[in-house]
């Protein structure tokens, strides 16, 4: 028996909502994603190795990925 293990980033969607995208300038759905490195065994991420490396927002209208800072600006309406 042998083990297959590795370390790699895993991205998960932490929030889905709507915002005014600064790129396509329309009200669009977005996904807020968080990326972390995981220790994985048999390709299953088991143990988070670091704190969340960063959050980013993907506009589902134009597909642009940007810093989550844009959400704080977009919510001032
Ligand atoms: Zn957009």
Strand element count: 5
Bound molecules: zinc ion
- SSE sequence, one letter per element: EEEEEH
Q: Could you tell me the radius of gyration in angstroms?
A: 16 Å
Shape: elongated
**What's the mean pLDDT score?**
87
When the domains are counted, the total is 1
Organism: Acinetobacter terrestris
Protein name: Zinc-ribbon domain-containing protein
Pfam families: Zn_ribbon_15 (PF17032)
InterPro entries: Zinc_ribbon_15
Q: Would you write up a description of this structure?
A:
- This protein is mainly beta.
- It has one domain.
- The protein has one helix and five strands; from the N terminus they run βββββα.
- Strands 1, 2, 3, 4 and 5 form a five-stranded antiparallel sheet that branches.
- Strand 1 and strand 2 form a beta hairpin.
- The mean pLDDT is 87.
- The site of zinc ion has 8 residues, from loops.
- This is Zinc-ribbon domain-containing protein.
- Pfam families: Zn_ribbon_15.
- InterPro entries: Zinc_ribbon_15.
Features:
77 residues; mainly beta; five-stranded antiparallel sheet; 8% helix; binds zinc ion
């Amino acid at each position: 028996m042998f083990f297959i293990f590795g370390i790699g980033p895993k991205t998960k969607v932490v929030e889905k909502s709507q915002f005014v995208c600064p790129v396509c300038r329309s009200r669009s759905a977005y996904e807020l994603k968080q990326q972390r490195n995981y220790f994985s065994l048999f390709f299953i991420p088991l143990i988070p190795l670091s704190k969340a490396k960063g959050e980013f927002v993907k506009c589902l209208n134009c597909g642009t990925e940007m810093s989550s800072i844009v959400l704080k600006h977009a919510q001032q309406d």
